[in-house]
Design goal:
globular; alpha+beta; four-stranded antiparallel sheet; Alpha-Beta Plaits; 2 domains; Ribosomal Protein S5, domain 2
């Protein structure tokens, strides 16, 4: 049996490290997994992962969680082909996207079609077990599977609300080359400004995602030592309606109307990678190209 699945990247509205409440917007930068499941005659299930660069503990734990959840308990051969161009350790939720795509592809190879909530929960569990996320990043995994933004309680892997987005909005990304440290190493830094964290969460829960994004960025920049103050002003003058650090950074995201996006990109630093992406539209596909 075979299954194919796509999950997508996301950008942060609220980082979940301070209070356990996270918020993210899905963007059209995909991770894809093809899975093949064949019963075997021996006593154990064996998993192979291609290419070798994708054969990580997270991928194997994600597949194991899906096999356990969706009935692949008997001896079998599971073959996974995982493809992703999302930069790792840059704040673009690459681990969540890969994990969610592995879970969903494995489920489909077993003849199941789980809900996005179930897939995101299993991805979050695998992320915690693999040590790639202090919170499990349930918000990031869910945002890459559904349309609109999400606000979630990552302590209980529960969705709190969905954020409605203007379909004309898109995202300009600046992705520096340097990676960020693992969240487990820096989580203590995010408890220094509880009032600011609370304001960001309250704004997201009220649907004011642009304000939440700006407040969250102030917190993350202080915690991680980024100096993006001038960058916020530059992209705002170019037409952005919101901007901020995504995840632990160093990626900087600016949300703007599609017809202003090229101007916003030009306002970003030339070093590193600059990219224009759509927010996840209502039909789950890109609206078009510039």
């Amino acid at each position: 049996m075979r299954g194919v699945a796509t999950a997508r990247s996301a950008i942060s509205v609220v980082n979940a490290l301070p209070l356990g409440i996270g918020s993210a917007l899905g963007i059209d930068w995909p991770a894809r997994t093809a899975a093949r499941f064949d019963p075997a005659s021996d006593r154990s299930t064996r998993t192979t992962v291609e290419p070798a660069s994708s054969d990580t503990r997270l991928v194997r734990l994600s597949a194991r969680s899906a096999l356990r959840q969706f009935g692949g308990a008997g001896p079998a051969r599971l073959r996974l082909v995982v493809r992703s161009t999302i930069p790792m350790s840059r704040g673009l939720k690459s681990s969540s996207a890969v994990s969610a795509s592995v879970v969903l592809a494995t489920a489909r190879a077993l003849g199941k079609e789980p809900t996005a909530i179930t897939v995101a929960r299993l991805a979050a569990e695998a992320s915690r077990a693999a040590g790639v996320s202090a919170t499990g990043a349930f918000d990031d995994a869910l945002a890459g599977l559904v349309t609109g933004g999400v606000v979630t309680d990552n302590r209980h892997d529960r969705e709190l609300r969905r954020l409605e987005l203007d379909p004309d909005l898109a995202v300009a990304l600046w992705v520096p080359e340097r990676p960020h440290p693992r969240s487990l190493r820096v989580r203590a830094r995010f408890h220094r400004a509880p009032a600011l964290a609370r304001r960001a969460v309250d704004a997201a829960l009220s649907g004011e995602w642009a304000l939440a994004m700006e407040l969250n960025s102030s917190l993350v920049e202080a915690a991680m030592g980024y100096r993006y103050g001038g960058l916020h002003g530059a992209v705002r003058r170019a037409g952005a309606v919101a901007s901020g650090v995504s995840g632990l950074g160093p990626t900087f995201a600016a949300v703007a109307p599609w017809d202003r996006l090229r101007s916003v990109v030009r306002a970003l630093p030339p070093e590193g990678r600059r990219r224009m992406v759509r927010l996840l539209p209502l039909d789950g596909r890109p609206h078009g190209s510039p």
